[in-house]
Design goal:
Blueprint (H helix, E strand, L loop, with lengths): L3 H20 L7 H4 L8 H25 L4 E5 L6 H7 L6 E6 L1 H13 L1 H7 L7 E2 L4 E3 L2 E5 L5 H10 L8 E6 L7 H14 L3 E8 L5 H12 L13 H9 L5 E6 H7 L2 H8 L7 H9 L1 E7 L13
């Protein structure tokens, strides 16, 4: 079966995001180019994705505010993410944006970008040059590269092709990516980043507090879909999430479960989205939030004060 079920989680997450956007949880003008079919999800799933998107956005904004236009973003397991286009529409200047995923996923994304004028127009640089292969796309400061991040040598080669500057402040994003990778491969990746990049912040969204009945059910559901969670050992609790960074040469780390993240969102904004769908079982939502977290690791002190409060 290999990596196919893991790649399929991109389609599932993209479908969920499109569904939540359609209902009005947040706006995304570009996801409809990547996802056509939408299946109605349970309200707690939509709220879960809303908290995930808002929580990660919070750190992206904080990072860009601190790093300025020299900022780089490396999005691991980016799938059909639309962040680049959103930043472009907001007029936010960054030096480089790199999306990284399995070649079969990036091949689909490159194809969709190529055939949608609205997507293609936003990534052109001044001279309009777009370098496109079956799995990779390079245009201006946007790069979509197909590579297995377990292969550090290949990853490094591809990052050079994407004109990554290892001395610039770099934001690394991973949403439910590391949990599918063997622990030694994750350790090698985090250790390589900490030795290669001068300044950076890693934002990781993933499971946590998995050592209970609810966690067992979640694991069972994923295993039934063929997803073996090779990196689940780091998802025991917030401390094991943080330790992963500290043990691999990062300067510091903080973590929050999604209950904390959700209640850090402004009351008026929470009130707005809570009116979109009636939620019968508040308890189920809280249980779900208790089993996911955002963990950050930093390589330099300027990012050490970042928090999930005041979203």
């Amino acid at each position: 079966m290999g990596d196919e079920p893991v790649m399929a989680t991109n389609d599932d997450a993209s479908d969920c995001k499109r569904g939540a956007v359609q209902l009005g949880y947040w706006s995304d003008d570009y996801i409809s180019y990547f996802v056509k079919h939408v299946e109605r999800r349970a309200p707690e799933i939509n709220r879960g994705y809303y908290a995930r998107v808002k929580g990660i956005e919070n750190f992206i904004q904080k990072f860009i505010n601190k790093a300025g236009s020299s900022a780089q973003i490396l999005n691991f397991g980016s799938g059909f993410d639309t962040l680049y286009w959103k930043l472009k529409d907001e007029g936010i200047q960054i030096s480089n944006y790199v999306e990284i995923d399995f070649p079969s996923v990036t091949a689909r994304k490159c194809y969709m970008i190529k055939r949608n004028k609205q997507l293609l127009e936003r990534i052109h640089d001044q001279d309009g040059e777009v370098k496109l292969s079956a799995t990779d796309l390079h245009a201006g400061n946007y790069h979509c590269i197909g590579v297995d991040i377990r292969n550090i040598h290949q990853l490094e080669d591809k990052l050079y092709q994407a004109e990554v500057n290892f001395n610039r402040p770099t934001l690394f994003i991973a949403e439910c990516v590391l949990v599918y990778i063997e622990n030694e491969c994750v350790n090698r990746l985090l250790s390589w980043i900490s030795s290669k990049f001068k300044s950076g912040l890693f934002v990781n969204y993933e499971m946590c507090n998995m050592n209970d009945t609810f966690g067992d059910v979640m694991l069972g559901n994923l295993k039934a879909r063929g997803c073996t969670l090779a990196g689940i050992a780091h998802c025991k609790n917030l401390d094991t999430q943080k330790a992963r960074f500290i043990n691999n040469g990062w300067l510091g780390s903080s973590a929050w479960d999604m209950v904390q993240v959700y209640y850090a969102i402004s009351p008026s904004e929470r009130h707005r989205i809570e009116k979109i769908e009636f939620l019968d079982e508040q308890e189920l939502l809280i249980q779900l939030f208790q089993h996911y977290c955002i963990c950050i690791g930093w390589l330099s002190t300027e990012f050490s004060e970042f928090s999930c409060t005041d979203i």
